Amino acid sequence: MEQALGAVALPLVAAFLMPVLYRWLRWRLGLAALAVAAATFILVILTPNMSLVIPWVSQLGIDLSIHVDGWSRLFALLIAGIGTLVVLYSIPYLGSREDLGKFYAYLLIFMGAMLGVVYAGNVMLLYVFWELTSISSFLLIGFWNTRDDAQYGALKAILITFGGGLAMLGGLAILGTVGGTFELSGLLANRTELLAQPLTTVALVLLLIGAFTKSAQFPFHIWLPDAMAAPTPVSAYLHSATMVKAGLFLIGRLWPIFHVHPLWVPVVATVGMVTMVVGSFLAIQKTDLKAVLALSTVSQLGLIMWLFGLATPEAAQAGTFHLLNHSTFKALLFMVVGIVDHQTGTREIPLLSGLRRAMPVSAALAMVGAASMAGVPLLNGFLSKEMFLTAVNNSSMGLAGAVVATGASLFTTLYCLMLGHKIWFGEPGETPDEPKEGSRTILVPPLILAVIIVAVGVFPALAESAVVGPAVAAVLQAPAELPHIALWHGFTPALLMTALALGGGLLAYTALPGVLAACRRVTPQRYHLNALYDFLWWKNQAVEKAAKWITNRQMTGYLRDYLVYTLGATALLFFGTMLVKGVRIPALNLSPVGPWEFLLAAIIAVGAVFTARARTRLAAIASISLVGMPLSVLFGLLRAPDLALTQVVVESVTVVLFLLVFPHLRQITLYPRRRSTNVNVLVALAVGALGTVVTLLANGARLFPPQVAEWFLRNSMELGGGNNVVNVILVDFRGFDTMGEITVLTVAGLAVYMLIRLRKQQAGGGKS
Amino acid sequence: MPVDLNFTIAAPLLALAAGALLILLLDLLFKYETIQGPMYVAAIGAVLVAGWYLVPLWQGAADPSGFAGMLVMDRFAAVYGGVLLIAALLAILLSIGRAREDQSGYLALLLWAAMGMVLLGGAGNLMVIFLGIELLSLALYVMIAFAPRRMAAREAAFKYFILGSVAAAFLIFGFALIYGATGTMSIAGIAEAARSFTSEGAWAVGLYYKVGVGLAIVGLAFKMALVPFHIWAPDVYQGAPTPVTAYMSIGTKAAAFAAMARLLVAAVPEAYQPSFLLPLSILAFASMMLGASAGIWQSDLKRLMAYSGIANAGYLIMAIPGLGLDGLSAAAYYLGAYGFATMGIFAVVRILEADGVDGSQIANLKGLFYRQPWVGVCLALLFFGLAGIPPAGGFVGKFLLAIAAVRGQAWIVLAGLILSTGISAYVYLKVIGTAFTRTKEAPQPEEGAEPHAPTRTAAQVVLVIAAVGTLVMGVLPGPVSELVRVALAGM
Fold this sequence. Notes:
The complex is a heterodimer of chains A (768) and B (491). Chain A has helices at residues 2-25, 29-46, 70-94, 100-119, 123-141, 148-179, 184-189, 191-196, 199-214, 223-226, 232-241, 246-258, 264-283, 289-309, 313-344, 360-374, 380-394, 398-422, 440-458, 460-476, 493-510, 512-522, 529-537, 542-554, 559-581, 595-613, 617-637, 641-661, 676-698, 707-720, 725-733, 735-764; strands spanning 50-57, 62-68. Chain A is mostly helical and 768 residues long. In chain A, strand 1 and strand 2 (62-68) form a beta hairpin. In chain B, strands 1-2 form a two-stranded antiparallel sheet.
């Protein structure tokens, strides 16, 4: 258990030391990073299968739980092994000019985070590390952050993977709540109950979105080609061998729970298939070597996704084996392309040819990698491709699947020939730098990978028993009769398909310009996913513009608009709810309305309109009295003389106050009539209607007995010694309140007096 | 009528009020130059003493109810009171180094606002809710305008005052209707009455009772800045002095949410829940989406934080659908995490202001990481907290809210959480990107502005506290969430 914890912790801790160590070690920092990576690799090898739970947030069911099985071991070996090779490769590749402290810090953070993903036994822990890999990928893509393409690629990658990660978080939250635990083992144990819940389908879809974005599946694949702005070691490591496989890792973890789900085969297999076809079809059209490799990665990831989507044990076996092989040959190809780029100064295929004379070792290595990817016998790619074709052929997709698979493999052969033949043979072309073979140190890592490719290709049983077998067992979680991986399966349909793909690819290669022209003609040039992305976020910034539009519509800065907005929203909510719920005003129990009431109401309405439209201050004051005075008459009509009297007093005081204050204010300014004035009228009417409707709703409903009033009526004489209940309440029962009110009024009056005096003093002092 | 005085539970409030009076007295008795420091000490002391008195309430030692049920300082109130007092403490620290003006009035108002906020958490009666709202609002109206020579501050204060009055009118109208329907102002009484409507089928009463609760929600939603009652937030956040913005962004939201939670738990019986909570969920969804997407196009950090606050008001509403322990403890946790992140970001603004730079311009953050590496790193961590990216506390908070929403079957708000978090992550990453972009030109101080060392030191202290708080809540969520949960379980 120490090994597993150490393998995750060592790179993470070492990462924080890198910027510090850089001050002393300078270019030798790479060696320190290499030591860390190698030590991690040893720890990974020493890690046995195990489960361990360290309590963390137990009440939420989130623990630091580690679960190592064959599936995680396969990934851990790739992460630490290829990681070590990539660090070794990066030492001569980057040289000493770059900010190495930053580079190795990010790279080691990634290594630790990725090991965390594959060792996590708790899905929330997995998520935390998952996001950490996205962030470190973002930082590494943007490593050359002064370059536009690096910024573009980094932003695109983080937007898509982080968005997918959020979907996944939603899925995990649902899964954990439905399944009652966030532990992988617990979810696995509850799988039958889980599948019976309708919510599980939602969770599955969200989780798949997470996996598809991370593994660059169609239609989320568009971020991977732009991630190639990262330094080549990063591309080799994150964007082909490990990080993009995190989605597949998750798929493998979900497989035992969900592969019987009715959505699994249609969604996962179809997405994988489409991705494989789209990726390989686009790959052949690219002229940048790294772009070809990126799209070929998309295509190969689609292939593996397709295999896991088929939901049969033999397909899972094929997928697992191909996953391992793809990491080896694709990392090798990236490294060689990096060397070519490094030594010739370009990655453009049309500029490169005949390099084998100047770079014989690189040429040989590239040929091994490309041949393995194409599926040439005696190399590991041949074996897993064969298994892939067999699995597709035997699956429910049958002949149609087999035809699509062969077709996509044909394209694969075509771009493998470009990578393994076109740039190396023919007449040497003009390149920015004079081509020469890379240094010995830079050739060592790809050489090791080439040896692995051949070794696995010739002795597949070794890889099967050591890595692939346990991994497949962990995915299946059930015993299954699986065929052994062997060099020769006899004359099977798969062999025929391989031969067709290789032969067809060769044939197409001889007529390459024509084929490419034909392909380009059918590829949409204007309406594709990248254009949509650029429209939204980059070139047209449609999202930014939409945000600006939304903001400016409401944020006018005018208080009157804000009031309209707030009041209008309230009225809208109120009447909207009434309409939706079908609420009606209950039968009313009102006294009849006489002509006097109508007359008074009409005067009040006219007064209100005049106040709003008054052009002088005096007119405004006069017309507001037209609202208040009839109101007091109304109170009187309704037999509430005390209320009427109060209203008259308040009204008079208000008018006096207005008269006192208005001379100090500005004249009423008349603004040109705006279109929004009509809206204002509407909102004003709506608010009035709201008040009326609420009053009508409340009409006549008084269910509780008026206890307070009764109590005062009964006790007024006995306790307060007076028959005028209101007076008794004011001076006796609530005497303290009255005193408090008087105090408050006094303090307020004092404050107003002070303000007036201050103002006078300031005016006297010449200030305004 | 018997007098029911319970000073044990009123002690935190009284401590704050006494601190405010002490500060005013100090200002009267001593000279400005000598007394400035002690006034801050008194303010901090008042908050600490109030916190000290909260501890027994947190432990549930005393009888939480007093003043004839008007004040219910139970564990719920203690949890929210704790969050509010931390916010007040950090706001006082951020205020150090304000230009020479009415310091005593400012600090007293800040303490009174804190008193109003804590009171809201412990309100046992509709009138007390109104009292708390008015106490904190009136104090804030004045505090927002507390910036000499800045018209924007006065404009902000005036806008907030007018719109706030409208909201208060809705609130009191709603209360009146609730009273009319139930015949009581006490929240416990309302809870009892509300549960009797369903059984009797008193349709007419139930109807205008619902309208009353709806209008009361409008009033509180305004204080929380929930769409469509958010309209004041950007202008006010931008216009107010930075410490005030920081304070109100957390304090008002937390206090109004506490009151809303208390009111809804009591006023909405299970049978009514769908009809009430659907509109609220829609408002929450709209808040999240608008808050996140309007932030995309902001060049002003304070306005950006206003939109972030709008989105976060929506997240808090996620706690409502279940109206259970999960949701309320998740909301308390989230408020803590959000509070630390927000306070820290405003502390960064304040650090820039200490050098005379307009810290609210995002453009002025450019290259911050290379000039002040630790400030840059903290800023990134705090924005991670807002975006909900591990290892910051916001991640755990959002996760807890998501769980509560799943349990409450609130799919609208869950979808809103996922979508808006994605959008706002883009917004925050852009700001972080600005801080980490290398530039040769340092931002120019504004004319007439002098660097001020004490301001910087105080702001740095706040930044460190906020960053540590964010990190602890993200990495060791266990102890904190356990505390909150245990505390609320006794509710």
